[in-house]
Every structure is written in C-alpha cells, then in structure tokens.
Amino acid sequence: MNAKLASRSGRLAGGWVVTAVFCFPIYLAVVNAFKANAQIKSDPLGLPNPFTFSNVITALSRPDHLIQTGLVNSVVITSATVALLIPLSSATSLWLFERSARVKGILTGIFALGLMIPPQVGLQPTVQVLKAMGLMNTYPGLVLVGISGGYFAFAVFVYVGFLHTVPKEILDSARVDGAGDLRVWWSIVMPLMRPATITVAIFVGLWTWNDFLGPLIILGPTQGQTITVAMYLSLGASAVSTDYGQVYAITLIAALIPLIAYLFCQREFVAGLTSGAAKG
Amino acid sequence: MASRPRKRRKALGGLAPIAFISLGLYTLWVIYPVFASATLSLTDARTNRQTMSFVGLENYTRMFSDPRLGRTFAFTLIVTILVTLVSNVGGVLFAMMLNNQAKNYKVMRTLAFIPQVLSGVVVAFMWRMMFNQNGLINSSALKYGWLDAPINWLGTREMATFCVCVTVAWASTAFCTVVYMAGLQSVPPELMDAARVDGAGPIKRFFNVTWPMLAPATTTCVVLGLIGALKLYDILAVLTSGGPANSTNSLAYYVIAVAFGNGHTGYGAALGILLLVLTAAVSAIATRILRKRETNL
C-alpha cells in the first residue's frame, strides 16, 4: 500500500516537474513583462520585485499607437472572417452532403488539396488578383482571402464530417415540414451542427488572429496592421533588442486575448482542437 | 420509405447559390493562384519591369546552379524531420504522463496546452529573448557559473539551426500532446487490464497496446507536423531571419524572400512550385505509410 502511494506521489511530482520545465518560457514572458529592465538583467528568473506596469504602459503609449491599432484590427479582421466563413462553409457543406457520391468525391479531393498547399505557393498571383480588384492593402482583401482559402476547405471537412454523424431521419424529418431550403439550413441544421461550428470558429479564429504571412504581405507595412504583425514591426527583425521589458510586455499583450479565450472556454478549445485536428 | 433517399438526393438545391459563390471564391483564391504560379514560373517576370517573356524551364534549371538552394533544402529537411520526430515522441510521453483524472493533472494539462494557442511570432519572441547573446539562458548560466563564456546561440550555423528546431518543436509538442491525449482516452481500459493480467510489463504494454491504438493520432500528428514544418515562416522571420549566412533559410522562407524581397517573380514562382511538389510528395508518402499502419491494427 505504501509503495503504491509512493509511486503515485512520485508520478505527480514528475508530472509537475516536466510541466514546469515545459512551461518555463511562458513563465519568463509573464514575470518579466512586469519587471523593470534593471531587474530583468540582474534577476531574470525571479518574480517581479517591485511589480510594475511601466512596460505595458510604455507599449501602449507609443506615438504611433501600433499596439492598440493592432488589437482593434485583429479583433475586426478575426470576427469578420469567422462571421462570414461559418455561413458560407456550412451551407456549402450541407449542399455538398446531399450531392451524388461522384460530385462529393471530386470536390472533397479539391478541398483536401487546399489544406495541403503552403500559403507561399500562390501568394504572388493572389497579390496580382487583389491589385486588379483594387483590394490590395485593404482589410476586405485580407478577409476575402481568409474566408475562401485553406480555412474554408478545413471548415467544409469539419461540417461534412459532422453531418455524417447526424442521424438521417433528423435531416429527413426536417424536410417533411415543407420548410424552404434556406430555413432548413439556418433554423434546423445549424443548431444541430453547433459543436462543429464551435470547432470551426475556434480554429479559424485562432489561425486568423495568429496569421503572420497573410497580413504582412496583403496589408503591407504601411497599413494599420494586425497585432501579430504589429508586434514584429515594432520589435524589429534584428535579434538585438535592448529594451527587454518592452519585448515581454508586447509579447504578453499580443498573446492575451487568445490566452483568455482559451482559459475561459478550455473544454470547447480542447474538444475543438482534437476533433478539428483529426479532420485536418 | 424507399423513395425518400431518391428525393433527398435533389434536396437542398436552394443552397446552390451560396455553394457556387463559395466554390467560385475557392477557385479564385486557391486553385487559380497555383496554376498562375506554375505559369509565372515559366517566365522571366520581375516586379521592376513591365514586360515578361516565356523562358521555358530556365527557372527550374537555374535551381541547380543556385548556391543558396543546397543549404536551404538541407535545412528544410533537417527541421522538418527533427521537429516531427521530437514533437511526436515528446507528445506521446507528455500525454501519457498527464492522462489522469485527478485535479492536479487537469491543471498541468491546461498549462501544457498553452503553446498551442500562441502565434508563431509570440513563440519566437519568447525563445529569442532566451537565446539572445545577453538573453536569459546566457545571463543565468554565467551568473550561476554553469558557463565560462556566453554561447552565441543564434550566431552560428549549427546553433541557430538547433535553436530553430527547439522553438518549433516546443510549439508542435503542445499540439501533439493534445492529439495524443484524445487518442489515449479512446484506448479501452479492458485492453490494458487484459494485458496486465497476461503479465505484460509497462514497456511491453506500451508497445503492444498503447502505441498501436494511437495509430490514428500518430497519422494526424505526423502529417500535420510535416506540412506545418514545410510551410513554416513566422518563427524563422522573428528568430533568425534566415541567418546567419543563409543557414536557417527554409524553402518556404526563401520563396518569399526571392518573390517579395528580390522581386524575382518568375524564379520565386518556380521555387514555390518546388515547395508544393515537396509538400505533396512528403504528405502523400507519410499518409500512405501511416494509414496502412492504422488498418493493420
């Protein structure tokens, strides 16, 4: 009995040590964001003493407001992308689900390609098309590319995968009432597909928020950028940054919203990540 | 009853307009750019001139005499293989360690999954601050006497390559842990009990029960890991910018540098097609091998 207890607490201790080592970079970013530069240099590993908000305040009082603008832009672009992608992809998925096996097979193959193609491959023609449409360096341009690229293919896989788990009788009975197709989709099937919608929203939201290459090229350096790119622009590409407090504070600000979302909806996040990953 | 499936086949035609708009957009932003890139790759197009002419396969033959491409290719393969290997082994072990219903383990899981929600830029800045010449690793190691002189982590070819691998592997280990954790929860406990009754030790139980049962999770982690590593951009941009001396310049990074940095549209497009072919080949081979393993269960 004692041996069993010892092995259990040994495992617990081991788990905590490995987790602590693994999360150490996160710990450093958090504690150092609230230290003065002098303490970061003299005592990089310790807790803030004294605790200070000066790094965060400095980051937020830049004359160009890069950080605030970046946060607002990221919120707007991410919300717009998710809000447009969900109806487009769910309707397409439901439509696709009702097609013949052949049409389904062909389109599924084409969507699978979209998941695999690295974004670098088609970026030059994408820029040319955006320029021709007058949408280069605009937010609508970035959102338009976001809702119809690889994210769209991913969403279709999640929705179609989910539709396979919905009993056929439910979809059938939905039609008997004589409701129009749009109503069947929006008022009957959409509520049923809620778990799939959550998965799509989490993944696409996270990817859009975290995307770097898309906004960097499509919005360009002169435009108001997303927080992810703004962080890169404000801290520079060079490995020599002297104001460590600034770097940590901006890192924390940039990570804050996804982090809070994750901590509050952890169950949905993990369920979404695992089911979504299996689809992708 | 029998006629209903036939009726349903034509159903939901009212959604066709939305579906066609979506398919049109998908064609415009995914399918067309690939073909347009393939076409561009056969021209001498540059951003700083208006005209372009057809040059056949010149951009592709040029790759063989490109002094940078050898190292770029080698670096891409090193990072892709090492990161996939490390994050899968680390992910399985970590998931097994955290697979427990007790409250403590729940908190550990919450912490361990955090890197999964951070952007590559955030992750890269966190590690850059540690690897810097006077960053946290050097300053702490000097302070506590673990090192006599600071290590130039990001300044030499080998060390910079190592640092990139560590950073990418860290983020992707968190992802694999999530996926393997879900896989572990689908292993029936009766199967483990049966193996235990048969007298199988923990190592034997792992290789004969757990690992084969995790085959679908492995497919997901390996294939997505390979694709993710091949298209990696943000971490490189922040951590090394491809340096020092071009040593951490991956193919995906080089495509952007040539196309948007140097403005060599044609050659950049050709490198993009090379990246596409490489990604397609790697993911097709990996999927085929791993799916076979799944069916052998």
Beta-strand segment tally of chain A:
0
User: How many domains, in number, for the residues of chain A?
Assistant: 2
Question: For this structure, what is the CATH class of the largest domain in chain A?
Answer: Mainly Alpha
The CATH superfamily of the largest domain in chain A is: MetI-like
Helix content range of the residues of chain B, please? over 70%
Task: Kindly list the characteristics that best describe this protein.
heterodimer; A: 280 residues; mainly alpha; MetI-like fold; 2 domains; 16 helices; 76% helix; globular; B: 297 residues; disordered N terminus
What is the strand and helix layout of this fold?
The complex is a heterodimer of chains A (280) and B (297).
Chain A: H1 2-22, H2 24-33, H3 37-42, H4 54-60, H5 66-97, H6 101-116, H7 123-132, H8 139-148, H9 150-163, H10 168-176, H11 181-192, H12 194-210, H13 213-218, H14 227-235, H15 244-264, H16 266-279
Chain B: H1 3-9, H2 16-40, H3 58-62, H4 69-98, H5 103-112, H6 120-131, H7 136-143, H8 157-185, H9 189-197, H10 202-213, H11 215-230, H12 234-239, H13 251-261, H14 265-295
Helix pairs in contact in B: 2-14, 4-8, 4-11, 6-8, 8-11, 9-10, 11-14, 13-14
